What we know:
Blueprint: H1 3-12, E1 36-37, E2 41-43, E3 53-58, E4 60-64, E5 69-78, E6 86-95, E7 97-102, E8 106-107, E9 117-127, E10 133-142, E11 148-156, E12 162-172, E13 182-187, E14 220-223, E15 226-229
Antiparallel strand pairs: 1-3, 2-12, 3-5, 4-13, 5-10, 6-9, 6-11, 7-10, 8-9, 11-12, 12-13, 14-15
Amino acid sequence: MSSRRRAVVAGSLVVASFSAVMILPFTAAADDQGPGSGKGGKAVDQAPAGVKLTTTLPERISVDNSSQKTAITATVKNEGTKDSDGIRLLVVGFDGLKVTNVQGCDAVAEKDLPAGSNSGFSCPVGALGAGRSKSYPVDATFDLGKTGKICLPVRSADGKKTFWQQGPVPFGTTNPSPNAPATPLLLGTDNKPVGPSGDQLPKTGAGSDVLPLAAAGAALMAAGAAGVWWSRRRTD
Length: 236
């Protein structure tokens, strides 16, 4: 099979609303991130009977103040009594938090990113057994001069349903330490941006905590207490 033919076949395996991009090397190693938390998570579309899909993020991460690098562990779980069908986990960065790689996953093309995000990776989890979980090491950077958020949607393999969405939930600190080697950030905490001198900088825009509700190709839509996000793009 020619290299051109192999590329076409590989591309067809990715969900239609995402573009297959080469997997970048994983560089950052996660330190002790504490227990996983589902903070900011909510069920969206109804999962099949007996299937309960959730995600967790670490309670804390540490950002290197010189390189801005950090590592995050993203975990998807099936807390139900029956195996799931094929599912896909998305890892998406917002504002100062930029996802640079998720091990074993494909980068989402810029044109397919949701409104307000700066990066995203799509992870083909496949069928997830009852009571089982799967974790993905996430390589990211965090600009401490800005706020930063991350989002973990769990979608059906065909991209038509979103069973669960955690976030966009912030990482941050209200007590920054710009002169230390690293800054610890807590999940669910809005970051207090600082510069290298320790002076506080303004947050990334007055509307940084509110994402646009509609955009061509990608959107976040509020539906009662649960939000269904990511446009469901269809090709006629």
